[in-house]
Design goal:
Radius of gyration: 20 Å
Order of helices and strands: HEHEHEEEHHHEHEHHEHEEE
Strand order of the largest sheet: 6-8-5-9-7-10-11
Bound molecules: adenosine-5'-diphosphate, magnesium ion
Strand content: 15-25%
Largest sheet: 7 strands, mixed
Number of strands: 11
Number of helices: 10
Distance between the termini: 41 Å
Structural class: alpha+beta
Shape: globular
Length: 317
């Protein structure tokens, strides 16, 4: 099968929202009045971001999910995406499953595949997403205020735990691996929560490189520090009962691949945050407080506070 037949068969779909989809030199989108376009790109490299033999349907899902997660962090509604794909060979069963996993998630979010590029080479998947958000309402990393509560959605650390188990670094009772591995391979982008947090959250980021690092971006961009509640953090790990405290905290704080949201809001908006959580059917937990004193601190169960030393993932670190 040639390049164009491959594109036609697997990646050409009706695009009722876009003005023009796959097939021309450019796709065309018509932004709606009063909306800003949110754009983000994420690349997944075989052997770097995923095991080469990862289930292709899950990989297709994840490649789009990590991009939708960035739109969620900005409170943007997904509109469209492009797919740049390097493939070592044309493996039809692989392509079929990959496209199925990716397009099922795309359909669930009404996000249209409008173009891309296809080339032969080491397996590499690069997606660019386009979303829309009412002008001025995008959630930024820079808006947090001293005194704001800090929240995270869902659970944290399970993806890292699965990775450590698969790499043989941590052992876990066998029945706990499948749900953690699902979190690693099929993350749920928190799009509905991000949209519900427009005009509620003061700042937000998605957690791709670990809570400590991604909250760190909010601290840096907002010029503030924070203290996190260690027992509240430990409670974020879905299978925490099986793990010693230090492993659990390391997974939650420097895990990565969670694709949950971390966000801030003033205490007088606690009811509004609760409403956003209900409206989006996404659990959120309050885990700490934004403070003027720079740096990230942890408050232990006994009330003592100490600096948090947890590195986040850095490809060149
Ligand atoms: P060009 O040579 O102008 O860059 P291509 O020949 O690479 O265009 O692609 C032909 C059409 O197919 C374009 O509309 C492009 O956006 C689309 N396309 C190529 N690869 C993909 C892909 N993996 N997924 C979706 N659309 C694709
Ligand atoms: Mg061209």
């Amino acid at each position: 099968m040639g390049e164009f037949e491959l594109i036609r068969r697997y990646f050409t779909r009706p695009t009722p929202r876009a003005v023009l989809g796959v097939g021309d030199d450019c796709a065309l989108l018509a932004p709606r009045p009063g909306m800003q376009t949110a754009i983000s790109t994420d690349m997944l490299v075989a052997g770097r971001h995923f095991f080469e033999d990862t289930d292709p349907a899950r990989l297709g899902h994840k490649a789009l999910a990590v991009n939708l997660s960035d739109l969620a962090a900005c409170g943007a509604t997904p509109v469209a995406f492009t797919l740049a794909l390097a493939l070592p060979t044309v493996d039809e069963a692989w392509l079929d499953a990959f496209a199925r996993g990716m397009l099922a998630l795309a359909d669930a979010h009404g996000c249209e595949l409008i173009g891309g590029d296809t080339t032969q080479g080491p397996l590499n998947i690069c997606i660019t997403v386009f979303g829309e958000v009412p002008a001025g309402q995008a959630l930024l990393r820079s808006g947090a205020q001293a005194g704001d509560d800090i929240y995270v959605s869902g659970h944290l650390g399970d993806a890292r735990l699965a990775l450590d188990v698969l790499l043989g670094k941590v052992s876990l009772p066998a029945e706990h691996l499948p749900p953690a591995q699902q979190r690693l391979e099929q993350p749920t982008p928190r799009v509905a929560l991000g949209i519900a947090l427009r005009e509620v959250a003061t700042a937000a980021a998605d957690i791709s490189d670990g809570l400590a690092g991604d909250l760190g971006h909010i601290l840096e961009r907002s010029g503030l520090g924070a203290t996190l509640d260690a027992p509240a953090l430990r409670g974020r790990l879905a299978c925490s009962h099986a793990l010693p405290d230090d492993v659990a905290l390391r997974c939650v704080l420097s895990g990565g691949d969670d694709y949950e949201l971390v966000f801030t809001a003033p205490p007088e908006r606690r009811a509004a945050v609760e409403q956003a959580s209900l409206r989006s059917a996404t659990s959120v937990a309050r885990i700490g407080l934004m403070e003027r004193a720079l740096g990230l601190r942890l408050r232990a169960a006994d009330g003592s506070v100490a600096p948090a030393h947890f590195a986040s993932f850095d490809h060149f670190g």
